[in-house]
Design brief:
Layout lengths: L8 H15 L6 H8 L3 H8 L2 H24 L5 H18 L7 H9 L4 H22 L9 H19 L5 H17 L1
């Protein structure tokens, strides 16, 4: 019978997420996660095997939550263009509400790792594809997508990730909103 964990796993994961998100994987040590969460290094290793194991568990949960956000945002609006606008508005609001404008753990991780960790990049690719598929399903048949739904969906996702990157530069929300609206208007005019 497996031993139950004798620590607050939710607190550990939230603490580790904060460090990985704000500082990146390489600049985060298990020692600082242990100290901040009150969970001993040995307990972390017993539960997750390694810093990488802890990161992957957290990153997978984070990626799943991003797909859910896209799914929810794209389900709103009467017309596909309204859903695109809502999705970009949700992205901007999420960025503005992040402490220290940390951006997106997915985008940050892609930038940090490049192709150096195949399991991390495989999860990032699957997540981007899943988000693109959600967008593609919603815009299918829209005049602005006209038989190129996958390409337009990938472009919409790319714009959202660009907005996230700009938010890390402390670009004011109203400027991000202006960029999103200018982009949406090009789709609407198509």
């Amino acid at each position: 019978m497996a031993r139950s964990r004798e620590f607050d796993d939710e607190l550990l994961r939230a603490t580790a997420l904060g460090f990985f998100w704000s500082s990146g994987y390489e600049k985060t040590s298990l020692g600082e996660i242990s100290k901040a969460s009150g969970v001993g290094n040995g307990s972390i290793y017993a539960a997750y095997g390694s810093k990488h194991g802890l990161f992957m568990s957290i990153f997978e949960s984070y990626c799943e939550s991003r797909v859910q956000i896209v799914t929810h945002a794209m389900a709103t609006g009467r017309e596909p263009i309204d859903s695109v606008r809502e999705f970009l508005a949700v992205v901007i609001a999420d960025c503005a509400n992040q402490p220290g404008r940390r951006g997106c753990l997915l985008v940050n991780t892609i930038s940090e790792f490049g192709s150096s960790k195949s399991d991390v990049m495989a999860l990032a690719r699957r997540t981007n594809l899943a988000m693109t598929d959600v967008i593609e399903d919603r815009i299918r048949g829209a005049k602005f997508a006209a038989e190129r739904e996958h390409t337009v969906a990938a472009q919409i996702l790319l714009v959202s990730q660009g907005l996230i990157s700009l938010s890390r530069l402390n670009t004011p929300s109203h400027e991000l909103t202006g960029i999103a609206e200018a982009y949406s208007s090009t789709l609407d005019a198509a």
